[in-house]
């Protein structure tokens, strides 16, 4: 008997190869594709960071431009990998916080999240979105590790 999820599954993605695997796993587990909410969080730019609207060298993309570009790429990503019927969601903020909050908002039954599997110094520098989601989510979290992770 296969494990089948009849509630919402949230799949945060960063458009990497691991994201493709995570969406695929969620679609395998879901009773229906419309239960799969594929989520990309557009990180908030610090107002003094290079590239932020209003920062020196303005003329760079605005938040609206960034969101539009992400939506276009998102649509292409889902189509390219044959993921039809899933819900695509784009939100702004800090990914680790927004993922857990969104899952709570939609009363998710499961979060399927890819992990890049960094260890040691890389992990210290980059942090771990997956680890934060595991700690703060109100539902079970399935973490998919890279097959070549350290």
Q: Secondary-structure blueprint of this entry?
A:
Elements: E1 9-12, H1 17-29, E2 36-42, H2 63-80, E3 87-92, H3 95-105, E4 110-115, H4 120-126, H5 129-136, E5 141-145
Parallel strand pairs: 1-2, 1-4, 2-3, 4-5
Task: Encode the helix/strand succession as letters.
Answer: EHEHEHEHHE
How many strand elements?
5
**Domain count:** 1
Arrangement of strands in the largest sheet: 3-2-1-4-5
Number of helices: 5
Whole-Å distance between the termini? Answer: 33 Å
Largest sheet: 5 strands, parallel
Notes on the structure:
The protein has helices spanning 17-29, 63-80, 95-105, 120-126, 129-136, and strands at 9-12, 36-42, 87-92, 110-115, 141-145. The protein has a single domain, classed as HUPs (Rossmann fold, 3-Layer(aba) Sandwich), CATH 3.40.50.620. Strand 2, helix 2 and strand 3 form a beta-alpha-beta unit. The longest helix has 18 residues, at 63-80. The termini are far apart. The chain is of the alpha/beta class and 150 residues long. It has a five-stranded parallel sheet, sandwiched between helices. The protein is globular and about 50 Å long. The chain has five helices and five strands, in the order βαβαβαβααβ.
In short:
This protein has helices at residues 17-29, 63-80, 95-105, 120-126, 129-136, and strands at residues 9-12, 36-42, 87-92, 110-115, 141-145. With 150 residues, it is an alpha/beta fold.
């Amino acid at each position: 008997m296969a494990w089948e999820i009849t509630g919402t599954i949230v799949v945060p993605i960063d458009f990497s190869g691991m994201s493709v695997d995570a969406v695929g796993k969620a679609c395998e587990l879901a009773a229906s594709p419309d239960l799969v909410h594929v989520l990309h969080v557009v990180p908030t730019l610090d107002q003094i960071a290079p590239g932020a609207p209003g920062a020196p060298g303005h003329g760079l993309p605005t938040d609206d431009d960034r969101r539009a570009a992400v939506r276009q790429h998102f649509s292409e990503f889902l189509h390219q990998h044959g993921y039809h019927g899933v819900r695509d969601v784009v939100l702004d903020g800090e990914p680790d916080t927004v993922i857990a909050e969104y899952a709570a908002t939609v009363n998710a039954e499961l979060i399927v999240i890819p992990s890049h599997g960094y260890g040691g110094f890389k992990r210290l520098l980059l942090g771990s979105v997956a680890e934060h989601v595991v700690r703060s989510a109100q539902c079970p979290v399935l973490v998919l590790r890279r097959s070549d992770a350290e």
